[in-house]
Amino acid sequence: MKNTGIGNYRWVICALLFFATTINYVDRQIIGLLKPTLELEFGWTETDYANIVTVFAACYALGYIIFGNFIDRIGSKLGYSISIIVWSVAAMLHAAVKSTFGFGVVRGLLGLGEAGNFPAAVKAVAEWFPKKERALATGIFNSGTSIGAVAAPLMVPWLLGAYGWQEAFIITGALGFVWLIFWWLLYEIPSRHKKITRQEFDYIHSDHDAATSATAGSIRWSKLLGLRQTWVFIVGKVLTDPIWWFFLFWLPSYFSTMFNLDLKKPSLHLAVVYTATTFGSIGGGYLSSYLIKRGWPVLKARKTTLLIVAFTVLPIILARFATDIWVAVGIISLAAAAHQAWSANIFTIVSDLVPKRAVSSVVGVGGMAGSIGSTLFPLLVGTLLDYYKAADNIGAGYNILFIICGCAYMLAWLIIHWLTTRMKPIDPSLLTE
Question: Which sign, positive or negative, has the C-alpha torsion 290, 294, 295, 296?
């Protein structure tokens, strides 16, 4: 990111995307940290909580497909703004609900709004970065998921103790409106931005698809679903998104149940896990970008990085043997960091293989698929944990889940490898109405 004489305003855009993603994950993560308090307040079972997570995931899936197409139509600036307004209002409304059903409703609205974050952010990266920098830029903004997940365990217990659970939702939800001010002041597409230099503009548009990629318009799902390039992203999301959601929504409960971690106090253990994911996100983005700059073909660099990541997740299967909380933290941190490295590259593959004008639509379709998987997986998690809790052996339930986590990425990579044999970027003319 050093100044090479061409200008660095694109990294200001990357910073905006990073902070939005951080806020997105603070608002998402807070319910997992307040789970023990809310269980007492509303009498939730594991299945009740799983159903609330499922509602969020289902609406998140719907939001992905809505915002993916919508953002390609109206642009990343307005689309991102609408998304963050919806999710921030929904986050604050959690403080007003009085029932389990009410939580389901506001979590659904939160999921609907939060779904716009990644289609808008990935599109903005495609608009502002050449291919050789996109994975690094994506890794940086995607590390906001990690920072948000780190900030939440440190901030939310303090807010809970100082003010109460309602105020925790209100304060964290209001952060989105602060970000929105900076977004409107600082963001515009490169061709309309007054602060970008001609050298930086030419550098951003140095890829061969620049001339045709900015064309606006809607693209039919039928055309996208008929392309292998779309299915690369779908597979990469549907098999791994549920694992990340398990890390988000059940790790606090796992450490509380298995190691008696007090979730009413700031949690260093959870902070370590989610801090590791920051290094995974940026490191995964850096690795594939480095390989490309060394002359590797773009797709080979992405796939090699994804394969390394898939191997890195496998040790989580050994978490079942951990009897010390810090051993468990180490094993799970490695897997969670690997997921974020996977995420940085699987998002970037979209902008590698499809024209810029279709990026949000493909992210929307694949994100919806990933969210459908994330909708179904919590049902398995809740049922499994309730079953083994009744048998007074809840650890066995977590052991099964860790085995699933360990195998998911390798399976996804094998399918992606098969799909991408002799694959080339999409010809923009194939997407013409």
Answer: negative
